[in-house]
Amino acid sequence: MSAEWNDNSPIYRQLKARVVGMMLDGVLQSGDALPSVRQVAADYQLNPITVSRAYQELVDDALVEKRRGLGMYVLEGARDKLLASERERFMREEWPAMLERITQLGLNLEQLLQASRDSGAHGESA
Amino acid sequence: MNALNKDSVISARGLRKQYGKQVAIDGISFDIAPGRIVGLIGPNGSGKTTTLKAILGLTGFDGELSVLGRDPRVQRDALMDDVCFIADVAILPGWLRVADAIDFIAGVHPRFDRSKAERYLAHTKLAPKMKVKAMSKGMVVQLHLALVMAIDAKLLVLDEPTLGLDILYRKQFYQNLLEDYFDENKTIVITTHQIEEVEHILSDLMFIRDGKIVLASSMEEVGERYIEVMVGPQHVNPARALQPISERSVFGKSVMLFDGVARTQLAALGEVRTPSLADLFVATMKGSYQ
């Protein structure tokens, strides 16, 4: 496994975002175990404190739970919870900027829909 | 000056060493807590190796130093039960076979776990009958690591452990260390010039220059304290007024490094980011060889 980190946010945040991404993609599902702190530290060559910190935030967000002596497990409903919060964040942070750009370029809804049909993107609903 | 800290794995107060008229370590004080991975980083001749030698009881010194609660000057033998050391210079004799090395350590070291060393060696190309002189540098380091990891020492001191190794061996070295050796009861002190390689592994950083510690801090504090800003041309003067510790030019933009200036204040001047340890090192050690 290799990892490239950017300098814009702390590594533990970036690691957390990766785990969140894996949950959204369904790679990690409810009841799945997260790899141990030691394993992730070794694979990504990170200090174990960094890994623990990322995991702790996932616990604080109620996405994973710590089972005594066993490790971290993805909680039931974690993906739905993430989808809800990520959708909310998209609408609040990303969409306004995107809308502004669309307006700036004078694109209309039909053009946008046509473009996504042409590229084969399908509006999958979860 | 404060007394030695009993809870520290290593506690130094006014540690000083002089070779003739040359001062190698100039009265340094520091504490290293258990469960930390500390990078001791400095230019050539800054006093890193002398500091390690003092910790290992390989040299005399002035001042106070306690390692795992012992004085390395007079309790070196007892100390060596709990401390391991990998140096950049090959110290294993050429005629030594892998099996001899294991027998030897098993004979002299009370805490050596032979099966653990053999398990580790099984993952390498090292065969029991292989002699040190037939090994590549990477293989010698693997043998060292097998012996050291099986001793389960509380403190591991690494002096340029990956010097001269190829990238595969280097990566594997740190991977093994984190997977099979390190835990919250152990402590690792590393000196290296390969800062990029250990940057994310470290929990603490010590920069040493001319025998003095110029920066000692947890990596978390480093991330909060030092901020790099890509300053746009219109903000250069106000940014300079905040006294950056370094300034360099990238694609016509000034990249300035600040120490202890509020992130919100800097964000108004341009894109902010965390500097790499290499950049921080260069900024801190400016003019070292002049």
Automatic annotation (TrEMBL), chain A:
PROSITE patterns: HTH_GNTR. Pfam families: GntR. InterPro entries: Tscrpt_reg_HTH_GntR, WH-like_DNA-bd_sf, WH_DNA-bd_sf. The keyword Electron transport does not apply. Residues 9-77 form the HTH gntR-type domain. GO terms for molecular function: DNA binding; DNA-binding transcription factor activity. The keyword Transcription applies. CDD domains: WHTH_GntR. Keywords: DNA-binding, Transcription, Transcription regulation. This is GntR family transcriptional regulator. It comes from Janthinobacterium lividum. The lineage of its organism: Bacteria, Pseudomonadati, Pseudomonadota, Betaproteobacteria, Burkholderiales.
